[in-house]
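seq as requested:
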Amino acid sequence: MPLLHDPAVSASIQVRLARLTPASRPHWGKMSVSQMLWHVSQAMDTALGRLHLTDKKPPIPTAVIRFMVLKMPWTRNAPTSRHFIPSQDHDFNAELARCRQLIAEIAAQSVDHAPPDHPMFGQMTGKQQSRLHVKHLDHHLRQFGV
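struct tokens:
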């Protein structure tokens, strides 16, 4: 599975981000394009330790959830943390710039670093977290047809 730390993968995601416009519409789901950018950026800010979220622990072990999220296909409209659900529209250009910057920051970290525990998936390796961000970004970029 690709890693955000792979320069070719990061570049590919950046190219896809460049295809988004304020008028981009989702193929599924309720988020606007600016809300989607805010949503994926919240996840990356959490991975960088800037957001400390408190969610209820899931009813199944975090290792099982982590395995499912990393290894299985994602469905449309899958549940997410309440902290990642946007309540308003955001400035498209500001959120696009924020998303691009966060991708660069994560990719600049050593893939061997020990990231903060994920609020839903528990302790992850740097490689697992890098894979998670690629999968998350890809999922939402496909949502918007790019």
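The two ends are 19 Å apart (CA to CA).
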